[in-house]
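Quiz preparation item.
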């Protein structure tokens, strides 16, 4: 093989669906592997809501945007197929930011070996960005206490589903916000959530009041949208709001207005946003925290797998429609 396929970002989203006009599919020559380098054949690639921020022109965000004309940013998992690096050998499984491409040339920076005897899909669904994000956000930002009530938006998504299961395992009352009855059934009957709100069909205020009779101590925010205002109004004094994502606002040129800050004062609320690039140095500790829950069978997952590199382009729109069921992954 003399070439491989990659997808470059060539334009910024202008609001609305993600289309092929934003990308260029290119054939690149296979690189020569120099001393201190190794070549990875990527097998599975993760699609994450954070990509919408990476594609935007915002230079004041937590991570620089993808430069136009360069390979679209993403994390993935693959196998070392050629190596001149002392720490990586042919056959090693590795994971990290490799981008929308079939092969990735690395000097080892930002990649780490995968030793868990689990399929690629399970690794990307639990031990990669979703599990790390859930663990950091819930425990280190939210600081949950047994007996509290937590509401998780995007509760059937890759991060929200793990947040809810971790909280449930630690003795919290867990309410999830989802976009379909099928997802509501899944998080209650499969994942063990105490209740679910379908933001598309339920009376949000009435359903939230029914499911949180003692108020809300923690809100794990993944989506934004109308539910945000209702949960905000139900927050207990000294409650914590962990802001992880705002998928409802990503396709909008002008974000929706948030709740009034008056409630922040009256209820002495703590609101904190976070992003994982600030905590990549903490990955070993986060995995140490997460792994026992997984080994005890307390964390279930499901993956929504798309086939072929080019499926990533339109696959991103599943985040807006809510049609994906579980962690969104591209199989190359």
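Solution:
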């Amino acid at each position: 093989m003399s070439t491989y396929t990659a997808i470059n970002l060539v334009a910024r989203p202008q609001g609305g669906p993600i289309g092929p006009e934003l990308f260029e599919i290119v054939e690149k020559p296979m690189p020569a592997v120099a001393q201190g380098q190794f070549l990875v054949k990527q097998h599975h690639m993760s699609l994450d809501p954070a990509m919408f921020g990476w594609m935007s022109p915002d230079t004041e965000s937590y991570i620089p945007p993808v430069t136009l004309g360069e390979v679209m940013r993403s994390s993935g998992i693959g196998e070392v197929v050629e190596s001149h690096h002392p720490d990586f050998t042919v056959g090693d499984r590795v994971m990290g930011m490799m981008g929308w491409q079939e092969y990735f040339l690395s000097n080892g920076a930002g990649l780490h070996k995968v030793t868990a005897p689990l399929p690629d899909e399970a690794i990307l669904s639990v031990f990669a960005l979703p599990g790390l994000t859930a663990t950091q956000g819930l425990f280190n930002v939210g600081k949950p206490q047994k007996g509290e009530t937590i509401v998780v938006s995007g509760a059937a998504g890759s991060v929200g589903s793990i947040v809810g299961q971790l909280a449930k395992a630690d003795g919290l009352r867990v309410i999830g916000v989802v976009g379909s009855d099928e997802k509501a059934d899944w998080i209650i009957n499969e994942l063990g959530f105490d209740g679910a709100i379908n933001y598309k069909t339920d009376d949000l205020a009435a359903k939230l009041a029914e499911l949180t009779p003692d108020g809300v101590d923690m809100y794990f925010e993944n989506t934004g949208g109308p539910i945000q205002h209702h949960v905000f109004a139900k927050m207990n004094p000294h409650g914590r709001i962990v802001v992880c994502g705002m998928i409802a606002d990503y396709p909008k040129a002008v974000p929706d207005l948030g709740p009034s800050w008056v409630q922040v004062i009256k209820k002495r609320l703590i609101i904190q946003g976070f992003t994982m690039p600030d905590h990549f140095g903490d990955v070993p500790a986060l995995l140490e925290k997460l792994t026992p829950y997984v080994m005890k069978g307390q964390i279930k997952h499901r993956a929504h797998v798309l086939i072929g590199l080019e499926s990533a382009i339109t696959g991103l729109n599943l985040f807006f429609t809510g049609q994906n069921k579980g962690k969104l992954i591209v199989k190359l």
